[in-house]
Design brief:
single chain; mainly alpha; 3 helices
């Protein structure tokens, strides 16, 4: 990951923390989009994907997004 991708990942994680506070239907939909963006962002880097994978699973549980 380059610097810009790393900064975006940090920003997205920060946004997820705020969405966890609100827990509205709109926040849940926004969280789905953010989680998808994070998944796409780390997909190009196997090491980062392995690191972020468990975190993404925790976010899905925290936001009740598991299918």
């Amino acid at each position: 990951m380059d610097y810009a991708e790393t900064r975006e990942l940090i920003r997205l994680r920060y946004e997820l923390r705020h969405l966890l506070i609100y827990r509205t239907a709109e926040a849940t939909e926004a969280a789905r989009a953010v989680l998808a963006r994070i998944s796409a962002l780390v997909a190009t880097d196997a090491e980062e994907a392995a690191t972020i994978g468990p975190e993404l699973a925790r976010w899905q549980v925290s936001l009740s997004l598991t299918a």
